[in-house]
């Protein structure tokens, strides 16, 4: 079985370059016997830099690159010559990438904009040449500073997808089908649970050339926050969504009960997720007549915008887009 191209977690060893040593050179030429100190400074060691790239959506290109090593700075030279700086190592990452220290779990930085650059591991400073240490009482200093050591650390890069709307629901609730209908995305669709094993993104066209991004998250089951099903591996992608679209099939015996289970799992994972705006979509409603739909509407959670939709027939899809756009811009 081929491995997935969607990689949202990598661990790398990031090593910045050492600073170059300062020079302890004393000037001499055929006309000058004792020209004094003229040693230049050492060059800075190379940084390891993260750069945001909106054309990337996965960390696949870093999966097998375990060691990222920047170049060392060059030593200073005579005639006050400063050593060359070490070449920086630039890692291009998708927007929404977070860097954490592998040992402590400490948050280091976050990339959210295209072209944004953040120094992940700074290079060592170059040492000062002996020209800096001359004085009236020490006119020929024969010592210079060594370069500062670079930093070596293990770093975890974690991707959290940036999307406007996150689709939340049990397996087989019709999330991928909706995404395939409202956008150009082509997620895998089949009539069995956990068809979607990785998040999918799609751009949904709206009126007047407007659009928003929708993310299809793999199905959540009761106990997901404790590791059941696909567990919490993909729940982190919901954290970045502006709003959540809960999807429950009309075939469910208890729509409100399923919605509360999903809400409970999100609360266990991160209580802040409950602060996001929510809409409830009852899917596969092409199987319902108007009378049955009205009866089911009475059992839905109160105070929550709800709409009956069908991705196959297109029923109320436009109304759903209107609700989402209104929630995103209110």
Automatic annotation (TrEMBL):
Keyword Cell wall biogenesis/degradation: no
Entry cofactors: Mg(2+)
Domain of life: Bacteria
Binding site for Mg(2+): 176, 196
Compositionally biased intervals (Gly residues): 36-46
Ranges of residues in domain OBG-type G: 163-329
Short name of one Pfam family: GTP1_OBG
EC number(s) per entry: 3.6.5.-
InterPro entries linked: G_OBG (IPR031167), GTP-bd (IPR006073), GTP-bd_Obg/CgtA (IPR014100), GTP1-OBG_CS (IPR006074), GTP1_OBG_dom (IPR006169), GTP1_OBG_dom_sf (IPR036726), OBG_GTPase (IPR045086), P-loop_NTPase (IPR027417)
Chain ranges of the Obg domain: 4-162
Region annotated Disordered, chain positions: 17-46
UniProt KW keywords: Cytoplasm, GTP-binding, Hydrolase, Magnesium, Metal-binding, Nucleotide-binding
Cellular localisation: Cytoplasm
Residues reported to bind GTP: 169-176, 194-198, 216-219, 283-286, 310-312
Family under the similarity heading: Belongs to the TRAFAC class OBG-HflX-like GTPase superfamily. OBG GTPase family.
Summary of subunit composition and partner proteins: Monomer.
Role noted for this protein: An essential GTPase which binds GTP, GDP and possibly (p)ppGpp with moderate affinity, with high nucleotide exchange rates and a fairly low GTP hydrolysis rate. Plays a role in control of the cell cycle, stress response, ribosome biogenesis and in those bacteria that undergo differentiation, in morphogenesis control.
Record's protein name: GTPase Obg
Biological classification of the source: Bacteria, Pseudomonadati, Bacteroidota, Cytophagia, Cytophagales
